[in-house]
Amino acid sequence: DIVRGKDLYLGYDDEEKKQRDELENNLKRIFQEIYNNLNDAHVQEHYKDDVKGTKNYYKLRNAWWELNRETVWKAITCGAGQNDKYFRNTCNGGEQTKGYCRCNGDKPGDDKTSGGKADQVPTYFDYVPQFLR
User: Fold this and answer.
1) By the 8 A CB rule, do 47 and 35 touch?
2) Maximum Cα–Cα distance for the chain, whole Å?
3) pLDDT of residue 100
4) Per-residue pLDDT averaged across 70-99, rounded?
């Protein structure tokens, strides 16, 4: 949501608001650089409305997220070390979901989960409004 510019990270104090503004400015700068490096005139034309006005690049940010969301999820989860507690014990039995990761070259439909559903990463919550998550 933050990448796509749809997050409700409003902040509660001046320090949080300052950090939010800094993050948003960095994202604008990064996506402006991506836009400037687009080599195809047709693609630049498609995203030109993002350049007008506020230069938030929301359309480009959304497209980037659609393209990279699964890779970002893998980087977060597969890069977790032995002592990192990204995966926590489940509420059903207190055990972790060991062996149900897409880190070892597993492919959709041919992974360690029953039914091959390991491609269903939590990023599918992207389109659920934040207040309902």
Assistant:
1) yes
2) 55
3) 53
4) 62
Domain boundaries, the chain: 14-132
Question: Which residue bears the tokens 């959304």?
Answer: 62
C-alpha span between 82 and 67 (Å, rounded)? 29
Task: Round to whole Å and give the CA distance between 64 and 94.
Answer: 37
Using CA atoms, how far apart are residues 123 and 3, in angstroms rounded to an integer? 12
Q: What is the pLDDT of residue 45?
A: 84
CA distance 91 to 73: 22
pLDDT over 80 (residue 54): no
Contact between 62 and 4 under an 8 Å Cβ cutoff? The reply is: yes
User: How many Å apart are CA 128 and CA 82, to the nearest integer?
Assistant: 31
Give Cα separations from 127 to 17, 51, 133 (angstroms).
24, 24, 10
Q: Does the predicted TM-score (pTM) go above 0.70?
A: no
Token couple for 133: 């998550």
Q: Which two tokens stand for residue 114?
A: 């029953």
Cα–Cα distance between 56 and 31 in angstroms, integer? Answer: 8
Rounded Cα gap, residues 66 and 70, in angstroms: 8
